[in-house]
Design a protein that fits this description.
This protein is mostly helical. The protein has one domain. The radius of gyration is 17 Å and the shape is globular. Helix 1 runs antiparallel to helix 3, helix 2 crosses helix 3 and helix 3 crosses helix 4. It is built from five helices and no strands. About 70% of the residues lie in helices and about 0% in strands.
């Protein structure tokens, strides 16, 4: 499962500029074009290796480093309200969320 997530997130860095170079530039990460491409390739090939069950003890090491940098550079500033990135959409509140849950449960029956 984790391999699939990394694989698709790596692909998105090349498909959508705002997910790759644009996001890295907004965050002030040095050499955004090189860094976004490097991370994108790492996620694609590392994700495929995880999906194939190869190097499952080695490839998580750079992924852990990547996740630490991602949390420190994006999530903390989003929480504090100082992020240059737009806020994610808010989940449904109140009765809307109850109805959405009811509909999702009803559709699985």
């Amino acid at each position: 499962m984790a391999g699939g997530v990394f694989f698709w997130e790596g692909l998105l860095k090349f498909v959508y500029v705002n997910q790759g170079v644009g996001r890295f530039a907004k965050l002030g990460i040095p050499f955004p074009a090189f860094t976004a491409n490097f991370i994108g390739y790492l996620e694609i090939f590392g994700g495929l290796l995880l999906l194939a069950g190869l190097t499952t003890r080695l490839i998580p090491i750079p992924f852990v480093g990547e996740m630490i940098v991602a949390i420190l550079s994006t999530k903390i500033s989003l929480y504090l309200g100082t992020s240059p990135l737009p806020l994610p959409p808010a989940p449904p509140q109140g009765m809307d969320s109850v109805r959405a849950l009811d509909l999702s449960i009803a559709s699985t029956r």
